[in-house]
Amino acid sequence: MADNSTVVDNPLAPPWLDSGDNAWQLTAGTLVGLQSIPGLVVLYAGWVKHKWSINSAFMAFYGYAIVLICWVLWGYRMAFGYQMLPFVGYPSISVDIGHQLSQSNLPTANLTQNFPQATMVYFQFVFAAITVILVAGSFLCRMSFKAWMLFAPLWLTFSYCIGAFSIWGGGFLFQRGVIDYSGGYVIHLSSGTAGFVGAWWIGPRLPSDREDSKPSNITLMLVGAGILWTGWNGFNGGDPYAASPDAGVAVLNTNICTAMSLLVWTWMDIIFFGKPSVIGAVQGMITGLVAITPAAGVVAGWGAILLGIGSGTVPWVSMNVLGKTKLFRQVDDTLEVFHTHFVGAIVGGLGTGLWATEAGCQAFGITNPGGSVAGNNKQLYIQLYSALFIIGWNVVWTSLIMCFIKYVCRVPLRMSDEMLEVGDFAIHGEEPYTFQYYNRSVHEKTSDGAGIFHGQAPAGHKDEESSSGDGSRNGEKAMMGKTSEATPHDHIEPTE
Predict the structure, then answer these.
(1) I want to staple 297 with a disulfide (CB 3.0 to 4.6 A). Which of 13, 226, 250, 353 is the partner?
(2) Is 490 exposed, middle or buried (0-12, 13-18, 19+ CB in 10 A)?
């Protein structure tokens, strides 16, 4: 007969459950999930050229889905389970109902939380997903989608899970006292490194796409950026694993640093380029979010301001000065992920070593006596060698994964030049902005008695969209040349 001695009397309210903590943790996780879908989906779609909007958005959408399945089948316990090696846990499933309903705990780190294990699995999943999607930012506009389908689960398994266990799950860097509040190293430094290295392996975009890379929709970019910023309240505010005072500190510091970074970046643009750039402001926002991530709840508000100044200047110089050099131009990092995430993470990680306070560490539940400002200069050294481990691991394993996909799986990393000329339609058979199709269908009916339905041309009709990478302009010309008869939709302009 089964032993029921461990079964709680009331499964709806076990004695370890804190409903407030559980509610906040699920809310925080949902906010982080929204950063990816729709946040990064629409940010990427608006940031790239018109002909790459669908492919860029779908790389993020696909990445979110594949990471979840891999996470619950083996990834979560590799990152947060029982130690197998000093840098990784044993892979195992997280879909057993008993496991999901039990009290959350990180066995190697010897930490328990007052909510179910299912809540923790979900909360950590959204961090894993956004990391993979951030890596994609370096690969957009030329990586083969089939190669991306392979890369995402492989990189999650052999790179992300290693960093997460080493720093958060009780691994060797956790034991040595590294402070990474919400993923400055686990998420941003790893994605910045992997993106840059992977971009080198994939190769560049078409020269024409690099020379003319104007965003298709800056307004849409701002929508995605706003979701990203607001969602970061859950990103950093959820990492005390409780609705605690330090969660409030993390949320406030996140917004202070981000605002400061955006303002400094904008001022730098005005001083050196004479104009405040909206895209630059978005970059400054991102670097501020990245820099505060490792420090969010352990620095004071003045520390957040200093981090914002650092993240508004150092990555700006990296992007606008070093990024123009021949060395950096050899690697086509589409959305400058190296500068925003790698450099921003270094600013944040070392800044944590400088400005972490003893009171902040205690409120976070760690024993570190603060950073240099509290007299603990050793913390800066710990932060440095932890960063070097994450960088080195990602350089090696991103390269190995790219070689495996290319040489073992025989899947090209880069699309053919013919596909790159066309873009979305060549890959997915779909276009992002379809006003021109609807307008053309009206004119086709007027002229020929037959319309175009859902972008499908009638037999014998040459579809001018598929013959060019930037089909919207060709479609507009074709539409305007058909007839001068006014229609109710003539005021609609195709979006570029």
Answers:
(1) 250
(2) middle
Q: What gap in Å lies between CA 330 and CA 35, rounded to an integer? A: 30
Query: What's the N-to-C CA distance of the chain in angstroms?
Result: 68
| Both tokens assigned to 94 | 């997280």
For 442, residues 6+ apart whose C-beta sits below 8 A from its C-beta are 451, 487, 489
Side-chain-side CA neighbours of residue 254 (13 Å): 28
pLDDT digits (tens, 9 = 90+) for 253-291: 999 999 999 999 999 999 999 999 999 999 999 999 999
Q: From 224, 209, 226, 202, select the one nearest 57 (Cα to Cα).
A: 224
Q: What is the pTM of this model?
A: 0.85
Q: Long-range contacts of range 470-479, CB-CB < 8 Å, 24 or more positions apart? A: 470/49, 470/50, 470/51, 470/423, 470/496, 471/51, 471/422, 471/425, 471/431, 472/50, 472/431, 472/433, 472/436, 472/496, 475/436, 475/437, 475/440, 476/436, 478/440, 479/436, 479/439, 479/440, 479/443
Q: Which residues 6+ apart lie within 8 Å of 280 measured at CB?
A: 265, 266, 268, 269
- Dist CA 402 CA 407 (whole Å): 8
What residues form DSSP beta bridges with 143? 414
